[in-house]
Design goal:
By secondary structure, this protein is an alpha/beta fold. The chain contains 16 helices and ten strands. Strand 9, helix 14 and strand 10 form a beta-alpha-beta unit. It is globular, with a radius of gyration of 20 Å. It starts with 6 loop residues before the first helix and ends in a 17-residue tail after the last helix. The mean pLDDT is 94.
Length: 379
């Protein structure tokens, strides 16, 4: 096994091991991928201030996110098809997150179900909800999340319609897959991935399978899903969900300060500044550029987190410096999962913690809760 020193190493291992269609689903973005690239470029443009001769012994990376104690200010974001990167991937990621001490968020479009994940953890996890056209089914998902003891509901707002992801179309990505000739050759080169995924508990959408009328095959289930993204989604639906869910609510997909104000006024516990990882509106602002305006707009009424482009503990620190209370990672932990399964997710979190800790020290900060804009140099 090669030495893994950074998230980029895990990405390369995952690229070699995981079927190309699944890896590209994780790795790529929508249309020309301008926003995908900006998520990284704008992080890299931020310059840290190196400080010296400051006592930085006994550092702490611990803090809270909506009242949950966390080992580092990072939560695993909801990601679709996680269990196709590694068999039972959602269960493995949830277990790794719990042992490390950070929250795990299960996607509506997961391979393993809410109940599957509940069976392998001892502490509450979070559930992400897409508000579908079938409001009755959405309500049933909320009921199942409550029954599983989920401690927060993460409502995704930026997928009313789906942005086109060119590489997914070229790869024939679908459930079930439309196998192209190139995809077939790729699978021949990755027998380990094939055997691993075939041995998993589930191979379809675990939260939906067996629960949708007349969807008696993977094909009909996929057709149902494709018709469920709802362009009528509005702030009234957030109020409706608040009436059904009595726990913590996080609103994900906010990128504009006007929307941030409205979101905060709903009484949510946190918003996530996010452009869906560059997978929706191409040409939109990077998450890190949008962050300061959104922080200012909410005026402390709720926590503000950042999602999009994080590949290191330094990125986490930069997000905190610009006002985020916490962050969410998607691709970073999926690279680890695809590379090494549960151990890879743990390794992802270890890398982020170590980078965060060292960078804090070199910036003259002992406690992550004390991070502010003073650690950044002005542009």
């Amino acid at each position: 096994m090669p030495v893994v020193t950074c998230i980029g190493d895990l990405r390369e291992l995952a690229r070699r091991r995981v079927a190309r269609a699944i890896f590209d689903y994780v790795d790529r973005g929508s249309y020309s991928e301008q926003t995908l690239r900006a998520n990284r470029a704008d992080f890299e443009s931020l310059t840290l201030r190196q400080r010296v001769a400051i006592d930085v012994d006994r550092r702490s990376t611990r803090t809270t996110m909506i009242g949950h104690d966390v080992a580092i200010p990072v939560a695993l974001a909801p990601t679709g098809l996680t269990g196709l990167n590694w068999a039972d991937g959602e269960m493995l990621a949830a277990r790794a997150a719990e042992r490390f001490g950070v929250p795990f968020t299960l996607s509506t479009m997961s391979i393993c179900s809410i109940e599957d994940v509940r069976s392998v953890v001892t502490k509450p996890f979070w559930f992400q909800l897409y508000v579908m056209r079938d409001r009755g089914f959405a309500a049933s998902l909320i009921e199942r999340a409550e029954a599983a003891g989920c401690s927060a509901l993460v409502l995704t707002l930026d997928l009313q319609v789906q942005g086109q992801r060119h590489q997914d179309l070229k790869n024939g990505l679908a459930v079930p897959p439309r196998l192209t000739f190139g995809g077939f050759l790729d699978l021949l080169c990755k027998p380990g991935w094939v055997l691993n995924v075939l041995g998993g508990r589930r191979k379809s959408f675990g939260n939906l399978e067996g629960r949708i009328p007349n969807a008696d095959s993977i094909t009909t289930l996929s057709q149902w899903v494709a018709g469920q993204f709802d362009p009528t989604l509005s702030w009234k639906d957030v109020d409706w969900i608040r009436g059904l869910w009595k726990g913590k609510i996080v609103l994900k997909g906010v990128l504009d300060p006007d929307d941030a104000k409205i979101a905060a006024a709903t009484g949510c516990d946190a918003i996530v500044v996010s452009n869906h990882g560059g997978r929706q509106l191409d040409g939109a602002l990077s998450s890190i550029r949008a962050l300061p305006e959104c922080v200012e707009a909410v005026s402390g009424k709720c926590e503000v987190w950042l999602d999009g482009g994080i590949r290191s503990g330094q990125d986490v620190l930069k997000a905190l410096a610009l006002g985020a209370r916490g962050t969410m990672i998607g691709r970073a932990f999926l690279y680890g999962l695809g590379a090494m399964g549960e151990k890879g997710v743990t390794r992802t979190l270890e890398i982020l913690r170590n980078e965060l800790d060292v960078t804090m020290a070199l910036c003259g900060v002992k406690d992550v809760k004390d991070v502010g804009p003073s650690i950044l140099r002005a542009a």
